[in-house]
Structure formats: C-alpha cells, structure tokens
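Whiteboard transcription, Tuesday session. T.W. wrote the structure tokens on the left side:
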C-alpha cells in the first residue's frame, strides 16, 4: 500500500555534538513545513531548543557481509508477509519528498524486499542523464500501535552517501512520527526524532554506532516522553512534541542527493538493510 511520509528525517534541522561517544544535543522547533503526505519535508526551523541527551556507548557487533537475499528459502517481492509475528505490506509508492532534490527521483519497489530468516530491504541508485534514479524499498505493518516498546535488530551493508535507512512509526501528516534513522553520509550516526504534526518536533543525533555493525535498537513511547536505546544503552530522552495517535511501524531504505540529509547520491553499488527481528510490547 503506498504510504509516503511527509518527512522521514529532519532534513538538516539537527544540531549535534560528540563523536564516538553515543551522545549528542537535540533540536526542537515549531516551523511550517508542508502538510499532507506530499509535504516538502523541510521540517520546521522554528525556535531552536535543546533536547535532553542520554548517554551511551559505541556500538559493537558483527559487521554485515554478503550482498543479497537471505538464502534459498527467501521470498522476493511479496505484497504481504509475516515477520516478527505481524503482517506487513510492501510499498510501491514514491519515496519521501525530502530526498527528491537535485535530480534525485526516489521510488519504492516491492522487488527490493526479500523475506527469509531475515527481512532484507535494498536500495540502488542509477545515473540517468541529469537525474539519479533511486530504487528503494519500504514495508509497513497492517496493525497500528499505540504507546509501548518497539525493538528491532538491524545492520546496513554497503554504507554509502545518498541513503537513509530507518525504522519508524508514522501516521498521516506526521500526526505521529517517531524515527530512528541512519544516514549514508554519517556512517556512525543515529538520528532520533519525534513529530507531533508537520511543524512540531524534537530531534537529537548521536554518534559512535557504525552502521555496518549489527545493533539492537529500541524505542520506548509513552504519553509524556520518547526514549531511544542502542545496544541496551539509553541514548536519547525527549519530552517535547510527543505524539499520541496510533500508527503502523515501517522499515525503509531510500535514496537522497543532497549534502544536508543523507548525502549526495552514489550510483552503482546496491545497499542493504538486514533486519533480523521485530518486537512490540504495550
């Protein structure tokens, strides 16, 4: 089912500090970015504030290897599948508009999704004249979730400029949006953002977590706060712009071509997001 977030990512609104420590500073705002699923994604600049940053340690794990698929038992391009005990659908719509700049044309293709012992999403960018054609992938749960704890384990293979890899909650017009994102031009960063509408958000970016390693990610969403954990360590605590509407959970990898968010495009190599589990507890 097509679903294109107005903005998955704060498109350059982040202020961060620290390197290799898993700590950072946050940004909040009340700007005026476009409404609806076709919004431009240039999240509100508004009055900058500071997010409450947590602490964490540099991520470790096993570096991802291989370049495709999940083995001979995997299924490629399913319209619907079961993973982590939930039913998911593949997306065939346009990628988030925030990535479609400077000639980048981003789309989601169900054939870039494979399901086996792991859920695998892929992205390939191809130069076509003055354009970069970004063929990515996105999956979405049929079930909507309210407050609770969301956990998944993932790694990125071929970390290259021009990509955004993410696990997130999203309701139309960002009535609820809670993102955990990794961008190709910052290979050790994790961006943690929550939105309550298209103009109210809080964003913190932390460093020290190599995307090529396997990491355990956790989002704890409550009525008064959102917490993000990486490898068991609390890294971000937000109390502003906390959403309340129920929303499905999504995984995606999509292309960019801008220095401020995701990085300039890299034509040729295919990038992969390997997801080995997904859990939810109210």
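and on the right, the sequence the group agreed on:
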């Amino acid at each position: 089912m097509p679903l294109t977030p107005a903005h998955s990512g704060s498109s350059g609104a982040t202020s961060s500090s620290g390197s290799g420590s898993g700590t950072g500073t946050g940004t909040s705002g009340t700007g005026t970015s476009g409404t609806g699923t076709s919004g431009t994604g240039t999240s509100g600049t508004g009055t900058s504030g500071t997010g409450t940053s947590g602490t964490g340690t540099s991520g470790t794990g096993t570096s991802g290897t291989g370049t495709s698929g999940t083995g001979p038992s995997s299924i490629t391009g399913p319209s619907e599948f079961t993973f982590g005990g939930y039913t998911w659908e593949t997306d065939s719509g346009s990628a988030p508009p925030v990535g479609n700049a400077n000639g980048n044309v981003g789309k989601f293709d169900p054939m870039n999704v494979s399901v086996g012992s792991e859920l695998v999403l892929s992205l390939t960018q191809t130069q076509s004249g003055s354009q970069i054609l970004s063929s990515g992938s996105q999956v979405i749960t049929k079930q909507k979730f309210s407050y609770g704890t969301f956990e998944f384990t993932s790694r990125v293979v071929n970390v290259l400029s021009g990509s955004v890899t993410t696990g997130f909650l999203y309701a139309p017009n960002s009535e609820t949006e809670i993102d955990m994102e990794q961008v190709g031009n910052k290979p050790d960063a994790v961006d943690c953002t929550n939105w309550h509408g298209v103009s109210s958000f809080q964003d913190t970016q932390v460093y020290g977590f190599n995307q090529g390693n396997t990491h355990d990610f956790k989002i704890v969403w409550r009525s008064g706060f959102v917490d993000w954990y990486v490898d068991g360590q609390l890294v971000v605590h937000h109390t502003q712009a906390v959403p309340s509407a129920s929303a499905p959970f999504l995984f995606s990898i999509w292309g960019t071509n801008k220095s401020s968010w995701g990085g300039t495009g890299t034509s040729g190599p295919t990038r992969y997001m390997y997801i080995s589990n997904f859990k939810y507890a109210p």
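Someone added at the bottom: The domain at 26-63+73-281 is CATH 2.60.120.200 (Jelly Rolls).
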